[in-house]
Specification:
By secondary structure, this protein is of the alpha+beta class. It is built from three helices and 13 strands; from the N terminus they run αβββββββααββββββ. It has one domain: Jelly Rolls. A five-stranded antiparallel β-sheet has the order 6-5-8-3-10, with no helix packed on it. Helix 1 crosses helix 2 and helix 2 runs antiparallel to helix 3. The longest helix has 20 residues. The relative contact order is 0.21. This is Zinc finger ZPR1-type domain-containing protein.
Length: 201
């Protein structure tokens, strides 16, 4: 079953280990420098969001070829979506900045889908439930990296970044795309990654 998955267990253990390391080594969000210290691995300096008319949308692509790639940390802005094209799967923008390993980003998606199925109970159509659980199974298999896959970040604000940018391909937005921001404003980004229009809802 979903809750007995070894990947979920590994994810929870990893999270607890990270919390322990941060507490022992003084990892924190510094109130003056706004730096997230992930001792002893990396430091993220949190930038203030620029005005939307100054956003420079970007696309970042990383080819995942082995398990070590999944421990690279992604600072995902509250406006960014993540795409796994091999699965036609997308992690949407949820209005919250998230700094975590790719492994844990995937685990969170698995958990959220499982919770959705469990909370829906008998009210969910069986065919829909099966499709979601098939997606969960595919996501879990990614954690083993049995075969390479691609992790693509689409960020209209340009604020997202990886802890290690090695082999990360960066490009402006490659197509016009509408984004609905957490505040409810629609943002249209052109092919050059420049914000063309911001309209309040």
């Amino acid at each position: 079953g979903l809750h007995n998955s070894r990947h979920i267990h590994q994810c929870c253990v990893a999270c607890e280990q990270c919390r322990g390391i941060l507490m022992q080594k003084g990892g924190h969000l510094h109130p003056t420098t706004s730096a997230v210290l992930l001792w002893p691995l990396q430091v993220f300096r949190i930038k203030r969001d620029p005005p939307r008319d100054q956003w420079q949308g970007k696309k970042m692509s990383l080819r995942i070829t082995d398990g070590s790639d999944l421990w690279r940390v992604l600072s995902k802005s509250q406006y960014a979506t993540v795409e796994i094209p091999e699965m036609e799967f997308e992690i949407s923008a949820d209005g919250k900045r998230k700094i975590d390993s790719l492994y844990n980003h995937i685990c969170a998606a698995v958990w959220n889908l499982g919770q959705h199925v469990n909370s829906s109970g008998a009210g969910m159509v069986e065919d829909h439930k099966e499709k979601i659980m098939d997606c969960v199974s595919q996501l879990q298999s990614l954690l083993d990296v049995d075969k390479p896959f691609t992790w693509v970040v689409h960020d209209p604000s340009g604020l997202s970044t990886f802890s290690d940018m090695t082999n990360v391909e960066e490009a402006p937005m490659d197509r016009e795309r509408e984004w609905t921001c957490p505040e409810g404003a629609e943002v249209v980004v052109n092919r050059e990654g420049v914000v063309q229009n911001v309209s309040a809802q």
